[in-house]
Amino acid sequence: MNSLVHQRCRVYTTEKVTIRILEEWCKGCEICVDVCKKHCLAMDILGKVKVVNVEACNKCLLCDVLCPDFAIAIE
Amino acid sequence: MFDYHEYFRSEMMPHMWCKGCGNGIVLKALLRAIHRLGLSKDRIAMVSGIGCSSRLTGYVDCNTLHTTHGRPLAFATGLKLARPELTVIVITGDGDGLAIGGNHLIHTARRNIDLTCLLFNNQIYGMTGGQLAPTTPEALFSTTTPYGNIEPNFDACRLVQAAGGTFVARGTVYRAIPLEKLIAEGIQHKGFSFIEVLTTCPEIHGRRNKLGTPAEMLQALAKTTLPTGVIHQASGPEYTEAYDGIIAKAQGRT
Asked: How far from A41 is each of A10, B1, B134, B206, B209, CA to CA, in Å?
């Protein structure tokens, strides 16, 4: 977890979960926003995904598994 | 969760697939399956043809072979015969594997050689410009059927089962965790394993047919009426083992 790619991620963290978003790889397909039942994710003005409510994340991993661009990682 | 980046050729990433393309989800499931089985990257050979799906081999840091259109199974058969100890995974698309390489598919299934074939079914020729594929559903539009498709489409799993494949399965990118399990089972199976993956093409196919956003197309796959999971499993003589027997016989060792 110390590769160069991980250093470029935007990290959102709480006690329960760490969400890493690699914005430069995000193509803005909105699959993650659509599958997140807890409404943690949203699109920003540039069409990239951002975390709006990290507290609500229940680590279902749907966004991690279904992101086709390897732009979201949940720990 | 699992760190995909250790399996990538980092200079090749990010990948060139369009936004919302399901191929990235299949790549994730494949890498998780390889990780779950504990296979070494140096003991895996991935062979692919031409097409969107076949670009996958460029991104993975295994032994990879990017071959001519429709012929990955022919190259993989030669590779497996020369180096039977390698785990050979064939990446092909619906146009590559069913139309242009359709003959190779049925004969590889007939031989029951120990390959794992992942056929990405996105219902269209994506990379070459949206032409009609043998899997395009009836009445849908493509660049070569501007008034709608009148041809019935293929059921790839039934074709391979009839040709003699010993492990036939179908998964969708919407159910990515079961897909990972199917791929792992296919790799472990001794003999020809065929896994059809229903994936999405939101740009070339989805836009022309107004199938909705990438997320809507993904969720439409959940309602597919085709059977999913392991469809057929059997055992039979494996080709490289049978060939070793022939070599021993010819050398007078038996």
From this structure: 13, 18, 38, 24, 28
Top-tier CATH class for B18-250: alpha beta
The residues of chain B scoring below 70 in pLDDT are: 1
Q: Look up the ipTM and state it.
A: 0.89
3-state secondary structure of B47: strand
* Residue whose token pair is 């242009």: B100
Tell me how close the Cα of A27 comes to any Cα of chain B, in angstroms: 5
How sure is the predictor about A3, in pLDDT bands with cuts at 50, 70 and 90? low
Domain map (residue ranges) of chain A: 4-74
B10-40 pLDDT per residue, tens? 888 888 999 889 999 999 999 999 999 999 8
Minimal Cα–Cα distance from B105 to chain A, Å? 27
- pLDDT, residue B189, reads 92
Residue B51: strand, helix, or coil:
coil
How confident is the model over A43-60, as pLDDT tens digits? 988 888 989 888 888 888
- Cβ neighbors of B254 (< 8 A, separation 6 or more) are B245, B248
Q: Which residues, other chains included, contact B252 with Cβ-Cβ below 8 Å and sequence gap of 6+?
A: none
Q: What is the CATH architecture of A4-74?
A: 2-Layer Sandwich (3.30)
For residues B153 and A42, the answer to whether their CB atoms sit within 8 Å is no
Greatest Cα pair distance, chain A, in angstroms, is: 31
Residues of A with CB under 8 A from a CB of B: 1, 3-6, 24-25, 27-31, 33-35, 61, 64-70, 73-75
